[in-house]
Amino acid sequence: MLTGAPRGTRDILPSQSGSWQWLEHQLRHTCRLYNYREIRTPVFEHTELFLRGIGDTTDVVSKEMYTFNDRGGRSLTLRPENTAAVVRSVVENRLLGDLLPVKLYYIGPMFRYDRPQAGRFRQFHQFGVEALGVDEPAIDAEVLLMAASLLDRLQLSGVMLAINTIGCGLCRPGYRRSLTCYLDGCVDRLCGDCRRRYRTNPLRVLDCKREECHMVTRSAPAITEQVCTQCREHFTAVLELLAASNQAYTVDSRLVRGLDYYNRTTFEFKFDRLGAQSTLIGGGRDDGLVAELGGQPTPAVGFAAGIERLLLAMEINHCLPTVAERPEVLVLPIGRAAKTTALTLAEELRGRGVACDLVFGERSLRSQLRLADRLGVYVAVLIGDQELAAGRVVLKDMTGKEQITLPAAECADKIEQILAKRSV
Ligand SMILES: [Zn+2]
Ligand SMILES: [Zn+2]
After folding, report:
1. Distance, CA 173 to ligand 1 centroid (Å)?
2. Which residues pair with 3 in a beta bridge?
3. Is 258 left (phi over 0), alpha (psi -120 to 50) or beta?
4. pLDDT digits 0-9 by tens, 74-99
5. How far, in Å, CA of 227 to CA of 229, rounded?
6. CATH number of the domain where residue 83 is located
7. What is the pTM of this model?
């Protein structure tokens, strides 16, 4: 072998792709129910988009991007997330019109030069939604309920919703000042990273996973206490709507997203049994993003979820269905002369919508039947010299093991009958 797959990437093998397709189907179906439509943006964009759309002080942008110059000398970057590109496309294609809101979803690979660990890859996959054009609390609640119903559909039990408000451009500066002031008094107890960043971005300290920082921020001033009246009313309304829909939640005043155009509602759905990587779905409002990327100021709210992490959580929770795609029928030609009949029969079955496979090469009847067993097909069709001469074939029902011989012309009808009985 030349060389393996690049570090932090992996192949999704046929034995696994059934689960992926199943999960993707559940995601798409949920989007259908909530009237979100799919948008597919390129996997690479101008680097500038992410510098502005994510922020150049974040770890993602400063340390983790796959950035390269193309042959024309343009700086391009493999997308580390999809929100910025979705907003870019919405602005560029003028999707915001009279029919507000615009509700979009995406599924696809993202790329980050991160340290690979359990459930974390350099090429990973994300599903996410974005609802643009509405600033009412009701859309925050709808997005949250959609995420919850999705996790429900996946039968992931033991997931907790943590929610917070991070205020707006008017009230957050005041909170930042009081937080910085508080942190000034405990700099010595912060981790190295936080000591460096707390003055430029104090909110990140609230987010820090290090135990020492956690201890410090436990008694930090809570943002929920300091937001302006409008932000408080918005937050209260969202919580009331959740309660009215019987959606459980905990308010976590340390849950923040450290970027300037994120505002008001932020939330995470957490699954504790995933350890440090416990967040399954994270999201909130990013009202400033459309304007940041050159559009008219437009409110927006959304979330993203890691597909690998969802699959891992479902595996841990024993609720990942084993979905194995297999042919329904296997056609077994015994001897060279039977091959033509076998091929035409297989094509006829496929034409009728029956998933069918055909054995190639010269193999004994016994080994072919073993193969049919192993594949788990419902019906095996045997075509040998004798049958061929008489214009007949042998059908073997692989579950009941009964076997019948019938004219080749009636074979496809009979198979349809057997399969129809199975699906009742
Ligand atoms: Zn505010
Ligand atoms: Zn820290």
Report:
1. 10
2. none
3. alpha
4. 999 999 999 999 999 999 999 997 66
5. 7
6. 3.30.930.10
7. 0.89
